[in-house]
Amino acid sequence: MTRPAFHLAIPVDDLTAARRFYGEVLGCPQGRDSDTWVDWDLAGHQVVTHLAPGRRGDAATNPVDGQGVPVPHFGLVLPVPDFHALADRLRAAGTEFVIEPYVRFEGQPGEQWTMFLRDPAGNALEFKAMADPSRLFAR
């Protein structure tokens, strides 16, 4: 069964910075674009950065496993080797993490590697890798 791709549109205040971050740092192929938006292929999902100048408030946080997780956020669930390759790529690019890569819920059904960061516009992203991918929705 083929899974449908999701579509997510997010605000950014600088398309040049968005192009650098999503295209160069994350390595997302660019799709269509205009003067006010850019489509990105995030592992087969369509993320669109829309130019929306102006300051937005900081995101709220929610305590999860002793960490202040930014809300809202979005990201991908990756295979473990891909998670570590992305973490290395982000470190090499000088990315400042909101939550450094670490193992969350260790020894529990939802054990996972996770990391949080923000794009240049302040949008929060989470990338994670499940110790057992079949337990993604485990309770």
From TrEMBL:
Which top-rank group of organisms is this from?
Bacteria
Q: Which InterPro entries match?
A: Glyas_Bleomycin-R_OHBP_Dase, Glyas_Fos-R_dOase_dom, VOC_core
UniProt cross-references to Pfam families, sorted A to Z: Glyoxalase
* Domain VOC per the UniProt entry, residue ranges: 4-130
Descriptive protein name: Glyoxalase
Q: Which organism is it from?
A: Actinokineospora globicatena
